[in-house]
Amino acid sequence: MAASHSSGRKSNAEEAMARGQQKIQSQQKNAKKAAEKKKQQGADQKTAAKAALVFTCPVCRTQMPDPKTFKQHFESKHPKSPMPPELADVQA
Q: Where are its TM segments located (predicted)?
């Protein structure tokens, strides 16, 4: 007669399934954390980019990061408009 091995332990297949499930849950949790971190980082970059746009064209309200770009924009897009005084001494 064969002795039964039911001593309350899980079989290898049941144990592997439990670890597999834990692995899947851990991967999902880590993916969620990474997505949240990436989303927050994107917001920080947008804020920094917006803060870098310090010059605003008085004609079309386009924002530019530096006076050289601003002058180039103004000369190419608004050639008939008078040059703003803050661009008079800027070298384009």
A: none
